[in-house]
Request: fold
Amino acid sequence: MKTAVALLILPNIVMDLIQGSRHGKLVPTIQRFAVLVLFGAIGTVVGTRLLTAISSRTATLVLGFTVVIFVVLNATRWSPRVSPRAEPWADVPVGLAAGMIGGVTNVPGTPLVMYFYALGLRKRDFVRAVAVTFVLFKLAQLGAVAWFGLLTFRTLELSALLTLVAVLGFWLGVKIQDRLVQETFNRVVLVCLALLGVWLIVRAQM
Reply:
């Protein structure tokens, strides 16, 4: 688990840099979610420290159930939403939670995707927000895993090879994304979240 976390950081950073640069307007997105990213970085350091000391099974299980519940609520037409007025207050706990979960499980994206979905962002804004925050979270995590001794030169080599493979799959995903209308895009996000939630629960039992 600890090796896997370190291996996947570089591919994540590269793919999200490409994704974020495709839609422009990076500065406004960074400004909007600056508080979220700041507290996410703090949570990432704390989560990575926990990764060096404890098992991630419980955190993975909790995350999996949270995702499944979120998807079920949306499937029943009850769609959680965060209003613009509540967004500045929600950024702090969401950032901390996403950072800690990401530090322990390497999956900060799931709570972030759920949060951005609850904000009701349009497709391009949604994709850009995910990409920008993922990059900044992962940069914080890269520093944390290096500081706590989880990143070796051999791990970095393997991570670079994984990046090449990931970019090929990423290119195919981008082609599909560009063809989706907003309603279909929302459905795809929910289906992916559901599959991820079930997989996290199953993985936690292994």
Q: What stands out?
A: Residues 2-205 form one domain. The chain has a mean pLDDT of 82.
